[in-house]
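Re: beginner question about structure tokens

> Can someone show what the tokenized structure looks like for a real chain? I only ever see the sequence side.

Sure, here's an example I had lying around. Input first:
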Amino acid sequence: MKTEILGKAGADASPARQGTPQGRLKLPDRKRPYIPALTRHPRLPARLLSAKVRPVQPLIGITCDISVPDPEQPHRLRVFSPIAYQDAIARAGGVPVLLSPQVELIESYLDRLDGLVLTGGDDVDVRAMNADLHPKAKVMHPRRQAFELALLKALDRRRQLPTLGICLGMQLMAVHHAGPAALIQHLPDEPGHDEQSAARHARDFAHTVRPTAAEARHRIEPGPVASWHHQAIRSGVPLGPLVVTMTADDGTVEAVEDPQRPFYLGVQWHPERTSDERTGLDVIRRLVQAAAARTTS
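And the corresponding structure tokens:
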């Protein structure tokens, strides 16, 4: 019995194949590429030949907060994330992935993720940067701060990874690039502000943000936003590669970006909680679209 692969045997075979012992498999001609004729396979289901390829949804990492239910039991630390971030990413077409604050896993995270959201939270602890802490500051957990600053440092080597900083996330971007001098630790203490004006930036009170004269790679339409913060980025100081692209009517910095990266954007407000689509879901959607472009390039 003869066995043949994509050719004839015996006298009809090419000279290079004549004399092949019976029972031995013949290899395809190496002079031309071998492309299996799957469509002629008698057992290949027709549905595989006509099936539509499902679009790949990008994986979007979300940094998490840390709570301490009982200070006397540190092993009971809890990692959590408001579900509004996850809902917004899913609505925008992404797959939300919560990131445990494990510094040793940062490179593994970034190897797998298509985009990243640095979320809101408590205040930056500037004491870790040899600066004095404002008495009104309510600092974030030190493990979270160490993780996210290390994450930002790793992103300096992964400049193509789309990144969105929200509220605290934007402030961390500025502190990472320009140090604690870039941070206003308590907005009411700033010239032109008081407790009443600063209250417009708290408890999701709606106020309007507008583009600056700076050329923005990611231009956001002016509109109302929901925010909740008492710290902010200081205007008029060098922010490293960051450019201020939006402000509130009282001059508070509302958005920054690095124009040398494909998508590296920080916003002071909470787009996941903003009802106006221009300044809300559309901001999240831009991140997801930038991440999706990486999966298809």
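Each token stands for a local structural state, so reading them left to right follows the chain. The chain has one domain: 59-296.
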